[in-house]
């Protein structure tokens, strides 16, 4: 069972429908006792980083997530949910994140090295460049286009980056360290490549708790 965390700032419908297409059981909840029994957790997110962290902190969900990560439960953050996995963000006002991964969320400059302006937010399809093709999330996934919508990206260590995309700078597109994983793009909206990545996460959750393969 995958637990989709409802903290008031996630695109729950599209993520849940993607899991349904994969025939993966899930629950959507903002209650710890319902999520506590889940074998994997999915943290979606849309909106501003400070608002999201405020919601997670005030509800106690941040502490719940820290406990589950310490217990070894696989966690996948999507879009803003991925950014929340890191130490801090400069969006709106400096704000501490969950701190599972090293790095800082920073804004696209909007101007390239030649002084030419480029569009913010980064919105549309960009090619994934595999950095760690042995990652569980990239198993049997070809380098393909995936769908992004974001104005901020993560400045992090190279060994955390599983895959990247280029948008005037190298953007960490998939990150991972141990059982904490994230996707800056929307896998649930990214056609076959995105669905394959989601399936790989679900397979990882299954393998972490059982033996066998999800068909």
Automatic annotation (TrEMBL):
Chain ranges of the Glutamine amidotransferase domain: 4-200
What InterPro entries does the entry give? Class_I_gatase-like (IPR029062), GATASE (IPR017926), Imidazole-glycPsynth_HisH (IPR010139)
Q: Give the catalytic activity.
A: L-glutamine + H2O = L-glutamate + NH4(+); 5-[(5-phospho-1-deoxy-D-ribulos-1-ylimino)methylamino]-1-(5-phospho-beta-D-ribosyl)imidazole-4-carboxamide + L-glutamine = D-erythro-1-(imidazol-4-yl)glycerol 3-phosphate + 5-amino-1-(5-phospho-beta-D-ribosyl)imidazole-4-carboxamide + L-glutamate + H(+)
Pfam family example for this protein?
GATase
Keyword Signal in the entry? The reply is no
Q: What's a single GO BP term from this record?
A: L-histidine biosynthetic process
* Principal localisation: cytoplasm
Annotated source species: Pontibacillus marinus BH030004 = DSM 16465
CC annotations in GO: cytoplasm
Q: Which GO terms describe its molecular function?
A: glutaminase activity; imidazoleglycerol-phosphate synthase activity; lyase activity
Protein name listed in UniProt: Imidazole glycerol phosphate synthase subunit HisH
Subcellular localization(s) per the UniProt record: Cytoplasm
| Residue runs in coiled coils | none
